[in-house]
Amino acid sequence: MKILRYNTVCENECLFYKLLRLLNEYGWYNLGLGAWIKSRRIRDNGFQEVALRVLVWSGVVGEASRIKGGIDQVLNYQGREYRFVFGPGDVKADAAYYQHRCKSSYCIEHDDIVSLLPEKPKPLIVIDLAQLHMHNLDEASSLRRQLAATLGVIRRFLWDRHLLLTNAAEGVRAWLKSFMATMQVQMSSLNTDDALDVRGYTGLRILLDPNADKDLQPDEVVKADVFILGGIVDKRPRPGATRELPIEGAVRRRISLRGSIIGVPHTINTLVEALLLARYVYDGNIERALYDVTPPHEARIRAYVEISRVIRGAKGAYVDWDLYEELVKWLPLRPRDFEKAARMAGARLRRSYEEYLLSKDQSHH
């Protein structure tokens, strides 16, 4: 059984809490499935997946009479315990998700959830496509995959209307359709400033720029109405590309890791995932969120930089696993990644990680 935990910001903004409010109105606290959904789709949060399917795919939640299962997930909200019933077990579901129209006396449908959603989705994730024309076919294909993955990340907590594509030329929707078949993403041919102005976003707007002078702060992660990212794929060096975006109405911030952008993921979807995790799970702590999403190769590159700093360029110098133990506190680094990083830096390890752990264990006795 998985206990789901989110902060109060998520309670106010995340989609699945709207579903919980509606479930509470009917006295339904055990939610099951009356239609098949792949287990990987509900692994993180079954309530969110059901809310999405009602909102985007026109499913319904209705009374359940014969559906039973195990308690797969539990979420506490406003003094009530909501249970997601899935897999083998004898727990009876009060309500269940169905793919088609409502067949019971009481149902939660698309319009019920829409009635609880704010007119202006917050936060709004904006991808500025002003530089799309500068990409070659390979880069454009990579960008399209990242945009599709970004929608998937947003759907972990929110829904499609929280994503806005600006400077979207004619044909962009068709260009995205094969990767984002069912989507209700916002698109605008206007520049980012104008697109946000006409939608009434007057609060804090943050443009993520790796060359910005100031780091993104925890309170900004939590309070921002809008996060803006450049739709840029850097398979070829484009120094300062984000700085060239014609955006005036936003403050520029960089996401850094212990004072450096080295080791910070650069794909759009990974950055958005870090932002949402920091906002809804880690109370604005972007470094903690980066730990969850940074891929091994990015962590390895940062470890190489840290090892090089320690040995000061002395090729063949020795490093020990004490340095690994320090780095792994803030880098998702595996022992084999540390070994590779040491080789990249021209350093040598005095012993294996197993020998290091054994010596530590012996020293404690």
Characterise this structure:
By secondary structure, this protein is an alpha/beta fold. It has 15 helices and 17 strands. It has 3 domains: 2-114, no CATH class; 124-292, Alpha/beta knot; 296-363, no CATH class. Strands 1-5-6-2-8-3-9 form a 7-stranded mixed sheet. The chain has a 6-stranded parallel sheet with strand order 12-11-10-14-13-15, with helices on one face. Helix 2 crosses helix 4 (46-56) and helix 12 (296-311) packs across helix 14. The longest helix is centred in the middle third of the chain and has 18 residues, at 137-154. It is globular and about 75 Å long.
Set out the fold topology.
Blueprint: E1 2-4, H1 8-13, H2 15-26, E2 30-33, H3 39-42, H4 46-56, E3 60-63, E4 68-69, E5 71-77, E6 80-85, E7 91-92, E8 95-98, E9 107-108, H5 110-114, E10 124-128, H6 137-154, E11 163-166, H7 172-177, E12 186-187, H8 192-198, E13 205-208, H9 218-223, E14 226-230, E15 251-253, H10 268-280, H11 286-293, H12 296-311, E16 318-319, H13 321-327, H14 335-345, E17 348-349, H15 353-363
Parallel strand pairs: 1-5, 2-6, 2-8, 10-11, 10-14, 11-12, 13-14, 13-15, 16-17
Antiparallel strand pairs: 3-8, 3-9, 4-7, 5-6
Helix pairs in contact: 2-4, 6-10, 10-11, 12-14
